[in-house]
């Protein structure tokens, strides 16, 4: 027995087997749904259930209970329990598929006590026009990937990254002790569905946690010279003042860019800190009772993303206008690659 899955936008349909994730069934039938991580963390494959029911082997952390209650599901984890009608996004025509390249380490600089600025030179990717917000994979010797977002817009054959050292992490530890300029890495790019929706006229609410600033910065830099760009409010949450590794640059943008606001928020501030305190999503809510006029772009750890989604939707921000890039470090701590 199989279930019939109908795409509301086109009335096309495909079959899904019991227990088969919707994303896999759609790909098997030739319908490339927008997706990213494939394990329920990023939320990029979110679809709207218009008819029918789904279940999960384990409820995905990239979906909030509020979103599920409104009829949303994550296609990479959802299994059909009946015939379905769904509203879903397909990869656009002209989508640039990921490819493998050899990168040379151009620069390795310290941005803070635990964040490295990595610059890669990838001559064969100089014409790859990735979307600001996307990422690449660094491929290790055992074939496992490490994912890092580009921190600046397309810039020929140079690619910028902000990489935080993960305690016990294999690659991020070697980045400080093993690699040096001139070394080469195998990389795969471009990857990821996180990007700015240029068709929307709404103001932009950018919320970053830690090095989640990287793809947010890429998007902002791609827009800052556009005279028609919408207003941008950037909230950056870190633990302590020493973690604000690009604070001076962002304050300069706030002084010189029209309609750009920058709010740093510390969750574990020293007594001398005179700025905002607490969790970054709470600072947004303290400043805005109504978020209906915004598109929100969120990048950071899963708990931050989940809390922000819940709080922002309660203040009128439509679920469809929340774009998130959630990261975790589970693979970095895998002893099998140590």
TrEMBL record:
Q: Name one GO molecular function term.
A: 2 iron, 2 sulfur cluster binding
Under the heading PROSITE patterns, the entry gives: 2FE2S_FER_1, 2FE2S_FER_2, FAD_FR
User: What is one Pfam family matched by this protein?
Assistant: FAD_binding_6
Occurrences of domain 2Fe-2S ferredoxin-type (ranges): 3-92
Start and end residues of each FAD-binding FR-type domain: 98-197
Which coenzyme or cofactor does it need? [2Fe-2S] cluster
Q: Which InterPro entries match?
A: 2Fe-2S_ferredoxin-like_sf, 2Fe-2S_ferredoxin-type, 2Fe2S_fd_BS, Beta-grasp_dom_sf, Cbr1-like_FAD-bd_dom, FAD-bd_FR_type, Flavoprot_Pyr_Nucl_cyt_Rdtase, FNR_nucleotide-bd
The record's listing under Gene3D superfamilies reads: 3.10.20.30, Nucleotide-binding domain of ferredoxin-NADP reductase (FNR) module (3.40.50.80), Translation factors (2.40.30.10)
Name of protein? 2Fe-2S iron-sulfur cluster binding domain-containing protein
């Amino acid at each position: 027995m199989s279930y019939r899955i109908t795409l509301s936008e086109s009335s096309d349909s495909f079959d899904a087997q019991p227990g088969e994730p919707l994303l896999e069934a759609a790909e098997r039938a030739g319908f490339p749904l927008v997706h990213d991580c494939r394990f329920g963390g990023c939320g990029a494959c979110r679809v709207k259930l218009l008819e029918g029911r789904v279940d999960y082997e384990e409820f995905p952390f990239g979906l909030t209970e509020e979103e599920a209650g409104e009829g949303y599901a994550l296609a990479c984890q959802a299994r059909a329990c009946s015939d379905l009608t769904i509203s879903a996004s397909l990869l656009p025509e002209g989508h640039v598929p990921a490819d493998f390249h050899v990168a040379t380490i151009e620069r390795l600089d310290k941005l803070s006590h635990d964040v490295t600025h990595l610059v890669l030179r990838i001559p064969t990717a100089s014409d790859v026009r990735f979307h600001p917000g996307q990422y690449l994979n660094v491929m290790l010797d055992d074939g496992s990937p490490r994912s890092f977002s580009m921190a600046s817009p397309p810039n020929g054959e140079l690619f910028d990254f902000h990489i935080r050292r993960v305690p016990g992490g294999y690659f991020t530890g070697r980045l400080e002790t093993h690699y040096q300029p001139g070394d080469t890495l195998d990389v795969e790019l471009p990857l990821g569905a996180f990007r700015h929706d240029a068709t929307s006229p709404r103001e932009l609410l950018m919320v970053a946690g830690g090095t989640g600033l990287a793809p947010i910065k890429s998007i902002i830099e791609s827009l800052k010279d556009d005279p028609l760009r919408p207003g941008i409010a950037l909230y950056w949450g870190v633990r302590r003042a020493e973690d604000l590794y690009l604070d001076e640059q962002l304050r300069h943008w706030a002084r010189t860019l029209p309609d750009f606001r920058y709010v740093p928020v510390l969750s574990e501030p020293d007594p001398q800190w005179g700025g905002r305190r607490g969790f970054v999503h709470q600072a947004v809510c303290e400043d805005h009772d109504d978020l209906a006029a915004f598109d929100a772009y969120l990048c950071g750890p899963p708990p931050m993303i989940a809390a922000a989604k819940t709080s922002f939707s309660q203040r009128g921000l439509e679920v469809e206008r929340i774009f998130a890039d959630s990261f975790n470090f589970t693979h970095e701590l895998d002893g099998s690659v140590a």
